[in-house]
Amino acid sequence: MAMVCLSDFEAYAKKYLPKMAWDYFAAGADDCITRDENILAYKRIRFRPRMLRDVSVMDIRTKILGSEISFPVGIAPTGFHQLAWPDGEKSTARAARAMNTCYIASTYSTSALEEISAAAPDGLRWFQLYIHRNRAVPQQLVQRAEALGFQALVLSVDLAYTGKRRDDVRNGFRLPPHMKLKNLEGAFEVCKTSPGDPSVSWNDIYWLRSLTRLPIIIKGILTREDAELAVRHGVQGIIVSNHGGRQLDEVPATIDALVEVVEAVRGRVEVYVDGGIRKGSDVLKALALGAKCVFIGRPALWGLAYKGEEGLQDVLRILQDEFRLSMALAGCANISEIGPHLVQFSKL
Amino acid sequence: MAMVCLSDFEAYAKKYLPKMAWDYFAAGADDCITRDENILAYKRIRFRPRMLRDVSVMDIRTKILGSEISFPVGIAPTGFHQLAWPDGEKSTARAARAMNTCYIASTYSTSALEEISAAAPDGLRWFQLYIHRNRAVPQQLVQRAEALGFQALVLSVDLAYTGKRRDDVRNGFRLPPHMKLKNLEGAFEVCKTSPGDPSVSWNDIYWLRSLTRLPIIIKGILTREDAELAVRHGVQGIIVSNHGGRQLDEVPATIDALVEVVEAVRGRVEVYVDGGIRKGSDVLKALALGAKCVFIGRPALWGLAYKGEEGLQDVLRILQDEFRLSMALAGCANISEIGPHLVQFSKL
Amino acid sequence: MAMVCLSDFEAYAKKYLPKMAWDYFAAGADDCITRDENILAYKRIRFRPRMLRDVSVMDIRTKILGSEISFPVGIAPTGFHQLAWPDGEKSTARAARAMNTCYIASTYSTSALEEISAAAPDGLRWFQLYIHRNRAVPQQLVQRAEALGFQALVLSVDLAYTGKRRDDVRNGFRLPPHMKLKNLEGAFEVCKTSPGDPSVSWNDIYWLRSLTRLPIIIKGILTREDAELAVRHGVQGIIVSNHGGRQLDEVPATIDALVEVVEAVRGRVEVYVDGGIRKGSDVLKALALGAKCVFIGRPALWGLAYKGEEGLQDVLRILQDEFRLSMALAGCANISEIGPHLVQFSKL
Amino acid sequence: MAMVCLSDFEAYAKKYLPKMAWDYFAAGADDCITRDENILAYKRIRFRPRMLRDVSVMDIRTKILGSEISFPVGIAPTGFHQLAWPDGEKSTARAARAMNTCYIASTYSTSALEEISAAAPDGLRWFQLYIHRNRAVPQQLVQRAEALGFQALVLSVDLAYTGKRRDDVRNGFRLPPHMKLKNLEGAFEVCKTSPGDPSVSWNDIYWLRSLTRLPIIIKGILTREDAELAVRHGVQGIIVSNHGGRQLDEVPATIDALVEVVEAVRGRVEVYVDGGIRKGSDVLKALALGAKCVFIGRPALWGLAYKGEEGLQDVLRILQDEFRLSMALAGCANISEIGPHLVQFSKL
């Protein structure tokens, strides 16, 4: 089977992963409306391509928080990579490094931060965290991440409680016994069943700020009101995200929410987006609408499920090639030529 | 089979109920467009969830007509509960009481008002009625209900004639001989085949008013004009309802009609809604658009069909859990924080 | 099989009619988009029903061109009724008479005008015609119709050439040898293969006017411009029609075109509509949008195919019952209470 | 099997062509959204037909760049006609000549320009080209085309790189060894794998202009901005095209893009359109929206696949008959009567 586009990896993963693992990765909350909308919303956006522009020399590199990446696609934080591939997050880190892009490691990794760091010491790595009820947990994690060269903190704010994913309930999903939440061993066992603290509020951003010199990126913003609050509370970036449709169902597709967040932010901080990216032209649309970079979740897991580090590189390379081709056919030779003039919302 | 969401109960009921009973409960008028629209319309509404609000202490209680209920979901009046479970409305009354919510008993019950009342003496019960051509019928029913501690009257106004439900016609639907319309025994036999009086008009509200000190709620309003008339005729509440799509087909979904009714009422009386509620987030949407409480019809019957009182409690508990989770994930810790800012109508 | 709604008759006809006959009746032009849109467009209209109005005494009679009919549904002109039932148009005429409504007999009948007239001498009959290249043909037909008591002429203007109905081409459709176009025997043989004259223009209305004292109704108007021209040329009525989607495909559904025609006509002449009527509530929608009466084409043929005169009466009776019930549930006790306030176009 | 409409030819070609050839012709880029939208967009346009106009004498001839053609449908440039029929482009040229219309021969023909010219010496032929990196290639091709009596040059500008057509990648599509790119033999072998030069820009139009006295038509414009630039750079015509959805996916359907291009051009040059034409009424819609002529791509290949020259004539004849009939039924007797008043965009 030739791996030509990301759907090929999805089909492979669906076929070869254990059902419980596939279901966990594929899950959306409730009726999965937002999970699916994330994809459909991209298909309602049309390009306005320009012709006869010199696109012989293509430059698709960009910078996020000052670090150059080979193209504007990073790896979103997702948990439990060992469910997809034995080497888990270590493979993910190596693939991201090999493709010269950014990997946001999840607190809920099946490899420890230290292992991830060792797997790709000079890779661009960010660390995703929740603020646990026991503040010692995030405090220690932040310090470890900073010490290990992670270059930014990504605070997830959309998981006060875990969304209702029906298949996980039916399957009685739990991590197989030989896999461990390596970042939460020992004293932090308690965190394993309840990731966040529902009492967390905006003031906790100041507390987090006080712990570290790393940039703070807030993940899970969907409204202009919260975007404005995020900027006012001094974050360095916003990831427009609905957690892959796994938390509150029937929130807007991220590409739709991106428009209002970008408008509210007015360039004061960088805005990223995840959810629904399935081909290179989706990346181009997100950038045209104001995202600095996109992050992929499930497609990265499909790549891992296919061939570990190598499979994830395949996924990234396909996205990269498709993105470059889309840019060229739309008449853009480099990232700075991408703008809102490039897209319009379809009438249907 | 795990009962994870309301669709699981629907599937169970469809599988195990006699076809004639299932068809009767499932029936919609004509092409069933409104019956299905009631559900689809909810799916076109999107949340605008707010992050980083303290939702560690959730309070989902509310009050309807001054009585506290554990969460804003009551049991809508539907007929013939013995078709779903041998103990019929007595089970329904007990389940509502156990979950500390409101049960609107139907005139067309297969248990007598007296039995319903005895099954849950201290439960919050309202009584639904039609104004029959022979005014002695509603007059006697009102007096019985008031004496038995029912706390409000719900007047159905959308059944001047019975809608055309094709499957019922094909099945030649009729109540099995061992079931009785217990509220209409003896002198009231005549009412069994024609529930309402097509000559009833707004002035009859005054007549009903004169019979009782109970609050009067009008059920079946779909337009701003009628909402205004209801308020002017002194009712205490309005249930926006299209009778589950069983009367005039191709009227608007109730969640769409709710918007215009709430706008017209301007807070002068409480507004409720029924029809199409299938998950906790639907309740949240209805409240965001101005409903004080929602009522469920068919899902309650599926719960009864599954395990009687216990099954209906399961249904209510799932809705309650889902509603609480939706609220929290949308950033609301109590009912008063729910408002129109929480939702938007989808472009599609 | 119980005949509960019009779809039941359609299913019967599809099952029992010879394929060539079924295909001919069912045919639409090209991709059949307009044929199907005629039906779908009704489903996008929503009622705004009013409650608590006295609908105990229902009066659904109306008048068209001064003649009373039992309810606002007549029989549209369609050809070749013997393809559906041996007695053909004679059965149609009898059924229309029995139900006290109007039958528009087609020039392309398999019974002669004289036979149709004899079958229902005191029935309300209109006669449909084309203006043939040889003006002697329409002239003679008009004189016969007038002499036989037909009370109006319905001039079809949308058949300059016959539309392309793919199935008819594939089937090599032709009338079975034992059926005759009885109105075009003898000298008029030539007309059988080319119904109209593509050179006909508005001035021919004056010529037709000069031949007869009967009211002239123009059938096939879809635009405000042509509606205005029709009024100016002195017609007494307009049937908004797209020939059941059998002529130019991808013209608007008739219920959509009705709105602009009614607006243009401003009450100066009566406006009727055909196409897509499948249940009583469709009739109510057409009247709410300004039609004085609707005409049914294919459903009448299905009724004939089911049981001839009796089957067509069944179809009409079902429509009548459904129409009366819809009116009552919408809060209208008679035709004069129907108006545009009763409907709204659905957002979807 | 009767060939009644273009879909019949499509079904035939799908059944009888080798899979690799069918896939190549059918291919769209990525998800094939634009390929399919080209067709769907036509179905959202409704006619506003006018009645009682004299359409007895129909004249459907038109002129493009001063040359008369029998009806406003030409053959779009597509490659590799020998994949469809042994005689390849020679058959195409003969069929176009026989039907008295225009054939745009592709650079990527499997017959040489000289052969095409010899097959239909007095036919109206245009020549399509790319500007290759090695400018000697287009220069020589232009000179050959001009010498051979081709009457215009069609410059494709939407193929800076080849679009990603997944099936072609999976199939490892390549021309069978016995077929040759006859126009690119010998010194031009190099061009076979990379048709265009991604550095081409608007200034190259001036260079092309300097080579020839033939009119230059630019093919692949989709925006008003590029339409304005095309006019300013002195082209004689614009073909609104998205390369049959084979280049950048999710650009607008050509019939939608046509509207904005026609508006921008304001009659200064002729505008044509290709993509999605499947029946005569599509041609009428394109003309109503301002196209001077349309060009068909895949349908021409299906005709070739069916019966070579004869099959393509069948396709053109069907389109011609359907176009004439549509015009007549819409009330237009000649091309000059077609205008924007004839169409409206559907609400759905």
N- and C-termini, Cα separation of chain A = 34 Å
Query: Which CATH class of chain A is shown?
Result: Alpha Beta
Report the radius of gyration of chain A as a whole number of Å: 19 Å
Number of strands of chain A: 12
Q: Can you walk me through this structure?
A:
4 copies of one chain form a homotetramer. With 348 residues, chain A is of the alpha/beta class. Chain A has a single domain, classed as TIM Barrel, CATH 3.20.20.70. Chain A contains 12 helices and 12 strands. In chain A, helix 11 packs across helix 12. Chain A is globular, with a radius of gyration of 19 Å.
Secondary structure elements and pairings:
Four copies of one chain form a homotetramer.
Chain A: H1 6-16, H2 19-26, H3 33-43, E1 45-47, E2 62-64, E3 67-69, E4 73-75, H4 89-98, E5 102-105, H5 113-119, E6 124-129, H6 136-147, E7 153-156, H7 166-171, H8 203-211, E8 216-221, H9 224-232, E9 237-240, H10 254-265, E10 270-274, H11 280-288, E11 293-296, H12 298-330, E12 343-345
Parallel strand pairs in A: 4-11, 5-6, 6-7, 7-8, 8-9, 9-10, 10-11
Antiparallel strand pairs in A: 1-12, 2-3
Enzyme class (chains A, B, C, D): oxidoreductase
Domain FMN hydroxy acid dehydrogenase (chains A, B, C, D): 1-348
Protein name (chains A, B, C, D): (S)-2-hydroxy-acid oxidase
